[in-house]
Amino acid sequence: MNLNLMRCALPWVILALVFSAPVLADDVTEEAISMQDLPPAVASTVQSELGDKQAEEVEKISYEGIVVLYEAEYHQNGEEYEVYVYPNGELAARHSHEQEEEGR
What we know:
Elements: H1 3-20, E1 28-33, H2 40-50, E2 57-63, E3 66-76, E4 79-85, E5 91-98
Antiparallel strand pairs: 1-2, 2-3, 3-4, 4-5
């Protein structure tokens, strides 16, 4: 399998495990952390992606105790944005979707 394809698919595979297969996802953990706790390469990529916006939530995503991704989330103009970064600072993926309304 192509290495670039694997790198692009990894964040989505992990997120699929987290949300759709609770039995398998027991080994996947998400830990809320602060921007100051990010490794320098990851913090640089996140800040570059966010520009002048503030991350509202930052998480470290691990599989069987090994950090595989960092996620930073922010909101702008009614949309929620998520940025996923590998531990080496390489951008893994970006995702945006409309914010869900309260109570829905």
